[in-house]
Amino acid sequence: MRSKILTLFLLITAFQVSFSQEKANVIPVQKQLDAYNARDIEAFLEPYSDTVKIYSHPNRLTMSGKENMRKRYGSMFENTPDLHCTLINRMVLGNTVIDQEYVVRQKNGPVSQVIAMYKIAHGKIQEVYFIRPKLGDDD
Q1: How confident is the model over 9-28, as pLDDT tens digits?
Q2: d(CA 78, CA 71)
């Protein structure tokens, strides 16, 4: 009986630790989303590792490093005052956070649907994979 209770206790503890870590992995993702919507480049870059890699899914590297992000996103933030990202759905599994997002660049302009997969390590975003609909897709 004691071994069953101990096993149950260990399983519950392991689940709590795992859930707690998953919850912690959401923090940098939410921080960068909030900063994106505020168009605050410094706050946006803070949750990323210095060596972050950005991919177009599944494996096409499109950007690497915070300084390259600063150039691209800094310019976008300055030149796109209506930029806004709405979180539609979020899933978390281990160190992976997956967001389904709607992005508007200009008021009354088209809405882009994007899926972003964030890989987290040591409290920082290490990799991002973007999935966008292909041109001509009906979805």
Answers
A1: 444 454 444 457 678 999 99
A2: 11
Residue 38 in any domain: the answer is: yes
* DSSP per-residue letters across 25-86: HHHHHHHHHHHHHHT-HHHHHTTEEEEEEEEETTTEEEEESHHHHHHHHHHHHHH-TT-EEE
Identify whether 137 is part of a domain.
no
pTM (2 decimals)?
Answer: 0.81
Residues 19, 93: Cα–Cα separation, whole Å: 9
Decide if 139 is inside a domain: no
For residue 122, the domain's CATH number is: 3.10.450.50
β-partners of residue 138 are: none
Domain count along the chain: 1
